[in-house]
Amino acid sequence: MAIVSARVRTAQMVASNVIHLQIERPDGYAWQLGQFARIGLNVAGEEVFRAYSIASTPESDTIDFFIAHVTDGALSPRLHALQAGDDLLLDTEVNGTLLPSRLEEGGKYLWLMSTGTGVAPFIAMLSDRALLDQYERVILVHGVRTWDESGYLSRHIVPDPKIQVICSVTREEGAMLTERIPEALESGALEKIAGIAIEQATSRVLLCGNPGMVKGVRNHLKSRSMVSPRAGKPGQVLAENFWL
Ligand SMILES: Cc1cc2nc3c(=O)[nH]c(=O)nc-3n(C[C@H](O)[C@H](O)[C@H](O)COP(=O)(O)OP(=O)(O)OC[C@H]3O[C@@H](n4cnc5c(N)ncnc54)[C@H](O)[C@@H]3O)c2cc1C
């Protein structure tokens, strides 16, 4: 592990509570789709670091993040104050197990289920041609409270006939889904909209974001015999929680 200084190339608010940061990629810095970086700032003489999923592909010359503003948070409000040309701290060791390459081979449908900025690693995945080519369809499910929290996706996902985006908006009208993701899975509404069933033989599922969503979906998928890879046994589900 080494901490280096890295420069912000662009800093843009993409929703009222989400900033998109593009960081200059330092020489030799490498990552895989689905991994996260630790970035930080010096706060009152102390280095404060947090994990953020990387939203750009491994070929990109910037390391991209989508970061929610957490009221009274130790780091995120300070990251929201960054501007192009500012520096931040970057841990050169990348981590994470939300790697599509860990999923059991042979799936036809890749489901990417997220809440809020949990969509970040999926933005990178949806830009990766090799990953899209592995599946017949890729279904991105984005759970948010308001439309504003999801609107930026259309600017960061290149339309592709293989990609279907389903938003669950819980506090405003007009979405295809108004239930939270676990309830929409339980009721069958999610699969009805997608027009495909989530089954062990054909589907692979990645989950990222709010631990309530992750737990609810995981438990439901277990009842369909869909589990995470473990001790050399193949699995169809991988998850990343943003907090405990
Ligand atoms: C592997 C991993 C990847 C992550 N990737 C991202 C990412 O890509 N984008 C991102 O915005 N956050 C991400 N997070 C969360 C991030 O690490 C911080 O926890 C978050 O920015 C809050 O930090 P803070 O110091 O401002 O708040 P803290 O003072 O540390 O407060 C933490 C609390 O903030 C809330 N919180 C944390 N993250 C979020 C969030 N995303 N949305 C709403 N509430 C939240 C939770 O209640 C949590 O208990 C990730 C976390 C992990 C473990």
| Ligands present | flavin-adenine dinucleotide
Q: Give the overall shape.
A: globular
**Adjacency order of strands in the biggest sheet:** 4-3-6-1-2-5
Counted up, domains total: 2
Task: Describe what you observe in this structure.
The protein is an alpha/beta fold and 244 residues long. Helix content is 19%, strand content 34%. The strands form two sheets. A six-stranded antiparallel sheet has the order 4-3-6-1-2-5. It has a five-stranded parallel sheet with strand order 9-8-7-10-11, sandwiched between helices. The structure holds flavin-adenine dinucleotide (FAD). Flavin-adenine dinucleotide (FAD) binds next to strand 4 and strand 5.
Summarize the structure.
The chain contains 7 helices and 11 strands.
Q: Which SSEs are present, and which pair or pack?
A:
Layout: E1 3-15, E2 18-24, E3 36-43, E4 46-53, E5 62-68, H1 76-80, E6 87-91, E7 109-115, H2 120-126, H3 129-134, E8 137-144, H4 153-156, E9 163-169, H5 181-187, H6 189-194, E10 203-209, H7 211-222, E11 237-241
Parallel strand pairs: 7-8, 7-10, 8-9, 10-11
Antiparallel strand pairs: 1-2, 1-6, 2-5, 3-4, 3-6
Helix pairs in contact: 5-7
Brief descriptors of the model:
34% strand; Rossmann fold; five-stranded parallel beta sheet; alpha/beta; Elongation Factor Tu (Ef-tu), domain 3; 244 residues; 7 helices
